[in-house]
Amino acid sequence: MKALFAIAMLALPGIPASTGAEAARSGSSVRFVFAWRGVPVGTVGLSLDAGRFTYTSRHLHVRDGHAGERVREVTLPVDATGRVTAGDAVPQALWLWRGPPPEGCVKGREELSGQEGPHCVTARGPTSAEGTMLGARFRARYDDRGQLQALEVGDSRFTRAAPGERLRAPPELFADGVPVEGGTGGALALAPRGDGPSFTVPPRLPEMTEWTPAAARALSAKVHAAFPDKGPTAADWRPGGEGEAGGCLAHALRYASLARARGQRVGLVHGLLVVDGGPARPHAWVRVALKGGGTLELDPTSLDPVRPDTHLALALAPPEGPALEAGERWLALLRGDYRVVRATRTE
């Protein structure tokens, strides 16, 4: 999993590896969905076969405003202890894959960059581990069999997909969207397939502060004008949406950042947008708490009204938070657990 910070190489004591290779038997494989601040951006596949560990990353790649997929794969020869052959480093993902590593440090290797350095567990339980990888803090959660289920590193989260589970690639979700059933009119809604649970989005977050509609709309217009070029760029992945070109996430993050500088706290809405009768595609906008009660939803990307027949909220999250609930709902959508329907359709 990609390290977030680079630090100098340290000489580490000889601590038994217990790298996870013991439980990651030859011929085994697993897949994770990678999300950044709740937004699914790719998948990571791990496999171990005949002394060869393979790390495959398939993630959203944006070029000239168009979303596509970039695939990167690294195969490393490993010995019986899980260390890279002819070296003393443990592949980072293999170290975490099966079973919480013991407390202490090993030399780990980030698969894609090849960077090596200390990987340390500072707290360990039967189904959890916490520590640092190359200076970045992580939290890992395991099931009762010791299989890694979820990993959080900074704003990134990796969630395990069940074996054999059909899962759309996140880049496909951005490029093709989700079909909308039930015609072209009426409010949008998510309908669970089978007996799946429904979910609700709260109207407010506790930390949201009350504002006036005029001030909130004025800021939306300012953010809209600050991005001459509308389209996905690296600005969508910067905490404050910095840049002169950006997509919906950059607009929403810039709005939240400027509002925070004025002493106001808003909510970031993760959702779907339908334009001109097309499919529902991932979108982000903001929700503002109003003085005297109620809320106001604003789409600084287009300045179009946020309406039930065009915008469908999936989750409401703090702009600076990991948005774990949003990540779970995006994952359910990728699995096909829900359909997007119009209220005019009889369910």
TrEMBL record:
Tree of life domain: Bacteria
Species: Corallococcus interemptor
InterPro entries: McjB_C
Pfam family, any one: Transglut_core3
This protein's name: Transglutaminase domain-containing protein
Keywords in alphabetical order: Signal
Signal peptide from the UniProt entry: 1-23
Microcin J25-processing protein McjB C-terminal domain boundaries: 247-288
